[in-house]
Design brief:
heterodimer; A: four-stranded mixed β-sheet; B: mainly alpha
C-alpha cells in the first residue's frame, strides 16, 4: 500500500500504532530507551486507517499494530522487535537513527 | 360477613395471599429475620386466641343468658355477635400470617444451606489451586471454565514430567555422558518449557485474569510474579549466572548484554501494562454517581481486556526468547547445568510454599 511505503521511506523509524494500543506504547518506550525517536503513525486517527490495517495484516502483522519499519523496511511486530533486541541485532539496526544518549541500566 | 380491616382477601377465593402481598411481606420479614423474632402479629395471635376463648365462653354465657331474657337483651347480643365475628376474623388472619412467616423461614434455611455449600466448594478450590498443584491430586479443579480446568490438569502433568527431567538431568551430568547425548536432554528440557508457554497462551485466552494472578502457581512462586510468570532477567541474574562456570570472555559479555536487553524489554512491557491499568481504571470510573446503569462502562472495559491477553502472550514470548538466546550462548554442558539449576530453583520455591502453608499456627 502506497501510504505505508511513503510514510516508511520518509522516516527512519516508524511505528504504525493505534492510540488505544498499550502494546504499541510499550514498543515506543523501548525505542525511546534505546535513544531513538520513532514516528508514531496512529492509524485510528488516519482517514485511510482501515486500508492501512488491512495492508498490514496482509503483510503478516497479526496485531495488526504495532508494525515497525526501520529504514523503510518492515521489521515486524512486537515478537520480532523483542527477538531482535535480545539477540543484540535491534541496536545495530537502530544505530543510524539514534538521536539521544542511551540511558544507563544496572 | 365484613371484617373491619380490609388488608387481606378472604381466603375462600384464593389459597393464601396474592403474590404482591407476599413480596412486600418478605421485604418486611427479611429485615426482621436476623432478629429471628416472630412478627408482632404472632404475639397478638396468642393473645387473640386467649381472648377468643374467654370471649367465647363469656359470649356463650351471654348468649345463653340473652336467649333466656329474650326481649331486653337483643341489643347486647348484636354487639357480642359482631365481636365474636371480629375475633374469628383476627384469629384467621393471624394464622395466615404465621403460616407465611414459617414459609419464609423455611426458604431462608434452604438458602443458607445453599450458600454454605457454595462457600465450602470455593474454599476447597482455593486451597487446591493455591497450594497443592505440586501434588498429583490435581484432578479436582472445581473450576467452571473448561479452558482453565484443562490447563490445571495439564500443568499437574507438566510438573510431574519436570521433576522426572530434573532427576534425569542430574544423573546425566554426573555420568560420563558425551555432549551429543547430553544435548538431547537439553533440547528436551527447553522444549518442555516451550510447551508450558503454549499452554499458558491458551489459558490466557480462556481467562486472562487467572493467568495474571498466577493462580496455578504455589504461593511462593506467586510472590515473584511478573505479567503471569517469572521475570526472565531475574532468572538469568540470580539463578543462572552464578552457577555457570568456565565462561569465556565472549560468553560473559553476551550474558551481560542479554541481561540488559531483557531488562529493557521488561521495563517497556511494564510501562505498557501501567498504561493499560490506567486506561482500564479510567473506563470503569467513567461516569460514577451518574444516573443509569454501568453497562457501557463494563462493555468498554471488556474491550480493553483483549490488550491484556496480548501482554501475557508477549511476556511469555520474552521468556521463551531468553531461554533460546541462552542456549545459543552456552555450551551443551553449561546449558544442561543451567537447566538443572532452574529446575531445582523452582522445586525449592514449591517446597517453600508447602512448608509455609503447613507451618504450625498459634491456636486462637
Amino acid at each position: 500500500m502506497e501510504k505505508i511505503g511513503k510514510v516508511a521511506s520518509e522516516n527512519g523509524v516508524v511505528i504504525f500504532s493505534k492510540s488505544t494500543c498499550c502494546l504499541c506504547y510499550a514498543v515506543q518506550i523501548l525505542f525511546r530507551d534505546l535513544g531513538v525517536q520513532p514516528l508514531v503513525h496512529e492509524i485510528d486517527h488516519d482517514p485511510e486507517g482501515k486500508d492501512i490495517e488491512k495492508a498490514l495484516m496482509r503483510m503478516g502483522c497479526s496485531g495488526p499494530v504495532p508494525a515497525v519499519y526501520i529504514g523503510g523496511k518492515l521489521v515486524g511486530s512486537t515478537n520480532e522487535v523483542m527477538s531482535l533486541h535480545l539477540s543484540g541485532s535491534l541496536v545495530q539496526l537502530l544505530r543510524p537513527y539514534q538521536q539521544t544518549n542511551l540511558s544507563s541500566h544496572d | 360477613m365484613n371484617s373491619t380491616t380490609t388488608q387481606f382477601v378472604p381466603s375462600r377465593r384464593m389459597g393464601l395471599y396474592e403474590p404482591v402481598h407476599q413480596m412486600s411481606m418478605w421485604g418486611d420479614f427479611r429485615n426482621t429475620l436476623l432478629d429471628s423474632s416472630p412478627p408482632p402479629e404472632l404475639m397478638l395471635e396468642v393473645n387473640a386466641n386467649l381472648d377468643n376463648q374467654s370471649e367465647d365462653t363469656t359470649s356463650h354465657g351471654t348468649f345463653a343468658a340473652s336467649h333466656r331474657n329474650d326481649q331486653e337483651a337483643s341489643k347486647p347480643d348484636d354487639k357480642v355477635l359482631r365481636r365474636l365475628a371480629q375475633n374469628r376474623e383476627a384469629a384467621r388472619k393471624s394464622r395466615l400470617r404465621k403460616k407465611a412467616y414459617v414459609q419464609q423461614l423455611e426458604n431462608s434455611k434452604l438458602r443458607l444451606i445453599q450458600l454454605e455449600q457454595e462457600l465450602n466448594r470455593v474454599r476447597q478450590q482455593g486451597l487446591c489451586v493455591g497450594g497443592g498443584i505440586d501434588t498429583s491430586q490435581l484432578a479436582y479443579t472445581g473450576n467452571s471454565n473448561p479452558g482453565i480446568s484443562a490447563f490445571e490438569l495439564e500443568y499437574g502433568h507438566w510438573v510431574e514430567e519436570q521433576n522426572r527431567q530434573i532427576s534425569d538431568l542430574k544423573n546425566a551430568l554426573h555420568s560420563d555422558m558425551g555432549d551429543t547425548e547430553l544435548q538431547i536432554f537439553v533440547d528436551g528440557g527447553m522444549q518442555h518449557y516451550f510447551e508450558l508457554f503454549s499452554m499458558k497462551v491458551m489459558a490466557a485466552r480462556a481467562d486472562v485474569f487467572y493467568i495474571m494472578s498466577g493462580m496455578w502457581k504455589t504461593s511462593a512462586e506467586r510472590f515473584f510474579l511478573w505479567i503471569g510468570g517469572f521475570r526472565p532477567s531475574e532468572l538469568v541474574k540470580q539463578v543462572l549466572s552464578p552457577h555457570l562456570d568456565a565462561l569465556s570472555e565472549q560468553q560473559r559479555l553476551d550474558i551481560v548484554n542479554l541481561t540488559q536487553s531483557c531488562q529493557q524489554a521488561e521495563d517497556a512491557l511494564s510501562q505498557g501494562m501501567e498504561k493499560l491499568q490506567f486506561i482500564l481504571a479510567q473506563a470503569i470510573a467513567d461516569g460514577l454517581l451518574r444516573e443509569g446503569n454501568y453497562l457501557p462502562q463494563i462493555g468498554a472495559a471488556m474491550n480493553k481486556l483483549d490488550d491484556l491477553v496480548r501482554f501475557v502472550v508477549q511476556a511469555d514470548h520474552l521468556r521463551q526468547e531468553t531461554l533460546q538466546q541462552l542456549s545459543r550462548i552456552l555450551t551443551t554442558r553449561q546449558a544442561a547445568r543451567g537447566l538443572l539449576a532452574l529446575g531445582e530453583y523452582l522445586q525449592r520455591l514449591r517446597a517453600l510454599s508447602s512448608c509455609w502453608s503447613s507451618r504450625p499456627r498459634e491456636q486462637a
